[in-house]
Amino acid sequence: MGLLHARALRDVAGEHLDDPPAFAAAWDERTERELAPWYRTTVTEDRARLHALRAARGETPAPPAPDPVDAAAALLPVAAGHDADLFRAYVETRACLAPLGEVMTRPGLAERVLELARGGASPPPGPTRDELRALLN
Question: What is the reported pTM?
Fold first, then answer.
């Protein structure tokens, strides 16, 4: 996201080098149009994950059940480890090539993620939370 923003800055600065007010307006418009959607998606994902972690620790109530597409979006990182098409879709979202919302509305993608989740697709190997706590104590 930072590289996309730097490229946009280069372009806008080159177009409005001698007109600071026009530069400011163009920079704001370009940032809002091209970067703000990515930023907002990232903030939304981070807040949902933080809420889920706090709920897992018993600090807050469990989050409400998301709609199926949001549930699939949350499971995409795990499902991506079990399906090459889902892996490519996940990488598209992380490389800022396609927004998560757009990727999740592709025909059959959310359904495939949920199918893998229902089928018991496991997260990457590693200790459970309790096992990690025991290791650290």
Answer: 0.70
Q: Tokens 């590289």 — which residue?
A: 3
The gap from C-alpha 82 to its chain's centroid, in whole angstroms, comes to 18
Closest CA to 108 of 86, 129, 75: 86
The DSSP-derived string for 65-110 is PPPHHHHHHHHHHHHTTT-HHHHHHHHHHHTTSS-HHHHHTSTTHH
Domain ranges in the chain are 1-34
Q: What is the pLDDT of residue 124?
A: 65
Instruction: Find the mean pLDDT for residues 123-137.
Output: 84
> Cα(93)–Cα(118) distance, rounded to whole angstroms?
23
| 50, 98, 14, 3 alpha-carbon torsion, rounded to 10° | 50
Taking the C-alpha atoms of residue 57 and residue 49, their distance in angstroms, rounded to an integer, is 12
Looking at beta carbons, which pairs linking 102-110 to residues 24 or more positions away fall under 8 Å? 104/69, 104/72, 104/73, 104/76, 105/69, 109/72, 109/85, 110/68, 110/69, 110/72, 110/73
Q: How far apart are CA 58 and CA 125, in angstroms?
A: 24
